[in-house]
């Protein structure tokens, strides 16, 4: 118990240090004292420094913190549900489902709706996020249904891989018929997803 408590405290301390380093390090060097004053709302700092900390670095650090925690919890839940340490969103095709959801919205927005989603700003970002969630949940529900009729984790993992390849084929067709700008927006999103998957694989 003491070892677990010590490990937990060390993890919390490491997260706090990394969070602080994310606020301090960057292309613009800001002293630690000024960063602390900005965080507590004390006046007297440069307005440029305040915008960098409040509008850029703090949101980025919080997003990384929440995303990392979400990846850890979701990975643990999937491995527990499927009783397999290899279970993951990429292996079971769930990440591919998210890609399909985004592809249906991004790649078809210009050709079907006549308006490129990547140019819609905040509304477009929300639509992309919602479509990714819907696509991932759809594949997850399909995996859950298949799991009720399949015996053996290996078979289930193979089915997940097959679903992933099938989804990739559909995405490839959508990319072929989409406009160049929509394809560029989708590739940018899929690159960010690949980075998140790499972070999860190395955790």
Describe the structure.
The chain has 203 residues and is mostly helical. Helices cover 79% and strands 0% of the residues. It has seven helices and no strands. The chain starts with a helix and ends with a helix. The relative contact order is 0.11. The mean pLDDT is 78.
Work out the radius of gyration: 21 Å
| Count of alpha and pi helical runs | 7
Proportion of helical residues: over 70%
Strand content: under 5%
Shape: flat
Residue windows where pLDDT falls under 50 for at least 5 positions: none
Would you spell out the secondary-structure blueprint of this structure?
Layout: H1 2-24, H2 32-40, H3 47-82, H4 94-113, H5 122-147, H6 153-177, H7 180-201
Helix pairs in contact: 1-3, 2-3, 4-5, 4-6, 4-7, 5-6
Which features characterize this protein?
flat; 203 residues; 7 helices; single chain; mainly alpha
Question: What's the quick description here?
Answer:
The protein has 203 residues and is mainly alpha-helical. Helix content is 79%, strand content 0%.
